[in-house]
């Protein structure tokens, strides 16, 4: 049985996921989970390509599955709320994420492709990748001030394509200063997810990176494992190995949803 038996960063075919909602429930049960939270992407009017397509149908299916599997697993209805997204009227939890950098009237995605990211740097920041990182982390700080989510999603998503293209030096003073500024803007005890989506796709390591996770830990943040699952196989991917790695980095416990409440799990 896995140490962490829940995941609340879960996408389905209702937005940009590959699998049906019920298939994700069955995969969670097979993985030994007792809690699964769905987190559809909030509506962003400037980009509807990845958002929830039919909220009414989504809620009908969620209600059906919640009743059908009530004796087997707790299902939660959440949202991954972009800084520029629309907050739904009701949800059990909010994952706050920055997916876009706003420059003037334009919104530039930070995680679509390396080519799109290069375009962002060139068109919005005159080729200065560090300026893009500074704006991204300023928006993370704005998320903390205005959205105040329950969980902070993929905190350093700005690094998604950096390993292959080396847009900026993640060990450099300018980048670190920007990231730490956002970290220091988080409220006491903020829950930051340890996001394994990039690891599952074979594109790099977890978010946040090891040095930033240590800094967040020193600031008193709490951490939650997150599959950021867009398909069944991603649920719980490398949860055990990541727990061991987090312990090496100085993390002594994680938080997780058990039913509708947070509980602390020692490592």
Write the layout of secondary structure elements.
Blueprint: E1 6-7, H1 21-30, E2 35-41, H2 55-68, E3 74-82, E4 93-97, E5 100-103, E6 106-109, H3 114-125, H4 129-146, E7 151-152, H5 162-165, H6 173-184, E8 191-195, H7 197-201, H8 210-218, E9 222-226, H9 239-248, E10 253-258, E11 261-266
Parallel strand pairs: 1-2, 2-3, 3-4, 4-7, 8-9
Antiparallel strand pairs: 5-6, 10-11
Shape: globular
Q: Give me the number of helical elements.
A: 9
Number of strands: 11
Multimerization status: single chain
CATH superfamily: Metal-dependent hydrolases
CATH architecture classification: Alpha-Beta Barrel
Gyration radius, in Å = 18 Å
Plain-language structure description:
- The chain has a single domain, classed as TIM Barrel (Alpha-Beta Barrel).
- 35% of the residues lie in helices and 21% in strands.
- The strands form four sheets. Strands 1-2-3-4-7 form a five-stranded parallel β-sheet.
- β1, α1 and β2 form a beta-alpha-beta unit.
- α4 packs parallel to α6.
- The two termini are 15 Å apart.
- The model has no long low-confidence stretch (mean pLDDT 96).
Task: Spell out the key features of this protein.
TIM Barrel, 267 residues, 21% strand, 35% helix, two-stranded antiparallel ribbon, 5-stranded parallel beta sheet, alpha/beta, globular, single chain
């Amino acid at each position: 049985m896995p140490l962490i038996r829940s995941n609340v960063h879960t996408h389905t075919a209702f937005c940009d996921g590959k699998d049906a909602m019920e298939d994700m429930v069955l995969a969670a049960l097979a993985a030994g989970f007792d809690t699964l939270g769905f987190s559809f992407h909030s509506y962003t009017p400037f980009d509807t390509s990845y958002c929830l397509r039919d909220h009414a149908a989504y809620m009908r299916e969620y209600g059906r599955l919640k009743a059908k599997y009530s004796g087997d697993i707790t299902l939660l209805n959440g949202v991954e709320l972009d800084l520029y997204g629309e907050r739904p009227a009701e949800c059990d939890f909010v994952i706050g994420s920055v997916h876009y950098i706003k420059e003037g009237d334009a919104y530039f995605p930070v995680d679509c492709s390396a080519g799109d990211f290069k375009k962002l740097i060139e068109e919005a920041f005159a080729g200065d990748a560090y300026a893009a990182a500074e704006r991204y982390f300023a928006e993370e700080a704005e998320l903390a001030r205005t959205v105040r989510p329950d969980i902070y999603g993929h905190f350093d998503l700005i690094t998604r394509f950096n390993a292959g293209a080396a847009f900026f030096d993640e060990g450099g003073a300018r980048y670190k200063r920007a990231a730490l500024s956002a970290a220091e803007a988080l409220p006491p005890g903020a829950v930051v997810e340890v996001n394994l989506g990039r690891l599952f796709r074979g594109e790099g390591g977890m978010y946040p990176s090891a040095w930033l996770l240590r800094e967040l830990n020193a600031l008193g943040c709490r951490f939650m494992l997150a599959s950021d699952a867009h398909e069944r196989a991603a649920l719980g991917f490398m949860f055990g190995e990541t727990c061991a790695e987090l312990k090496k980095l100085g993390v002594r416990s994680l938080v997780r949803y058990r039913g509708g409440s947070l509980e602390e799990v020692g490592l």
